[in-house]
């Protein structure tokens, strides 16, 4: 079985609550988690219901568009975050060898420039498949 693209999460870590920033990102944002992290920081994991669901480049651009449109106060919250990560999730494949199908995910130079201008990272998380081919 070939690897599978799952999603792109936006992960944020901050010394202050992120409630205002999250609310301003709009109603197309799904909050996977929002709360304290290790009693020191605030953490949010977000997904967006915009962009092409099977294209990380499109999803990241949809996030960037909303972040770039934030108010000055929310942009300060964004800049003050200790971590700003676009996390591309992939479910690992089970095939091996020369004939196995791989997974190619293209990120365009313009997208990378937008992410860099927002001082964010792009990370990739590969989730293992459990016995029987299901995600752990």
Can you offer a commentary on this structure?
The protein is of the alpha+beta class and 136 residues long. The chain has one domain. Helices cover 28% and strands 32% of the residues. Strands 2-3-1-4-5 form a five-stranded mixed beta sheet, with helices on one face. β4, α4 and β5 form a beta-alpha-beta unit. The two termini are 16 Å apart. The model has no long low-confidence stretch (mean pLDDT 90).
Beta-strand percentage?
Answer: 25-35%
Largest sheet: 5 strands, mixed
User: How far is it from the N-terminal to the C-terminal residue, by CA?
Assistant: 16 Å
Query: What is the tally of helical segments?
Result: 4
Question: Would you identify the regions where 5 or more consecutive residues have pLDDT less than 50?
Answer: none
Strand and helix order: EHEEHHEHE
Biggest sheet: strand arrangement: 2-3-1-4-5
Rg to the nearest angstrom? 16 Å
The best one-word shape is globular
């Amino acid at each position: 079985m070939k690897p599978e693209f799952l999603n792109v999460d936006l992960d944020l870590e901050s010394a202050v609550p992120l409630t205002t920033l999250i609310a301003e990102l709009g109603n197309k944002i799904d909050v996977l988690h929002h709360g304290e992290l290790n009693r020191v920081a605030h953490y949010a994991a977000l997904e967006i219901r915009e962009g092409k669901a099977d294209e990380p480049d499109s999803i990241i651009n949809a996030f960037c568009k909303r972040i770039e449109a934030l108010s000055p106060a929310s942009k300060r919250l964004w800049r003050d975050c200790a971590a700003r990560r676009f996390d591309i999730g992939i479910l690992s494949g089970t095939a091996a060898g020369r004939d196995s199908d791989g997974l190619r995910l293209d990120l365009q130079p313009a997208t990378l420039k937008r992410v860099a201008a927002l001082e964010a990272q792009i990370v990739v998380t590969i989730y293992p498949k459990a016995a029987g081919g299901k995600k752990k």
